[in-house]
Amino acid sequence: MTISLSAVAIEQFPDMFTNVYQAINKMLPPTIQNQRGIIGDAWHASVVGQFTLDDRGAYQSDIPPSDVPHNDVVGTFQNKIKNLPTDAFQQGEVKANERQNLAKISAYAVSRQEDQIIIDQMASDGLVTKSVPDGGVNLTVDKIREAARLLDLDEVPPENRTFIAHVNQKDSLLSQTETTSADYNTVRTLVTGQIDTFYGFKFLWFGNRQEGGIPLAGDIRTCFAYHYDAMIASYGDIMNFSNPDIEVVWDHRSQSHLVIPKLRMGAKVVLGDGIVKVDCNEA
Asked: Mean pLDDT over residues 251-280, rounded?
């Protein structure tokens, strides 16, 4: 990786990264709970369980206390980092705008990794037991309807529901009359080839990603329908720096400046009833 790194550029580069990162239209972190600045090897989240009200009983009588179930969810962090060296003899040979480009691709790489940590946890967490089978077909309106029904059964709130899938599922969905015809819906974006919201879900579409993206096993793609409260993403403290962060340091042994983007993050399912796996056959 080549990059022009003057003393001023070294000082400004972290701000360039931060500005680009903050401007990115984040995908998955805003759709779940977040907590930041966590110190330690693991992070904890206390989940309060459901309870019912008691009869009042005799007037003026004492009201006995009741135990409300609390579940202590423990998650671990993933530490992600990249070392992008620039030899001292390269620094005078490149264009200055490479700094902006490197800041941009570093910020997007970090953002994609945040998404992947969330997706991987949804796919592997044992609390997630609800699913819609592939049935030999790709994504259909019936599958979306069934995912919503499974959430409704446990009275998962209808607000703040998200559906994440691959663009191959969007192509399949747009081939169905029920999603594109004004006879079935009044959301104009469905007619223009962009499915943003449908059947109470906010849809987010993924392409092919180097990090993995939406899981694919053979011809079966596993998509997810979930509620905001179903997961927590935690960001650990990195030596009192912001997280995510990027650092530029000089390494005298390699005679290079090292541009190092880094992320310390974990994700965990806290309410398994709030997530549904939706399998889709892309064959």
From this structure: 92
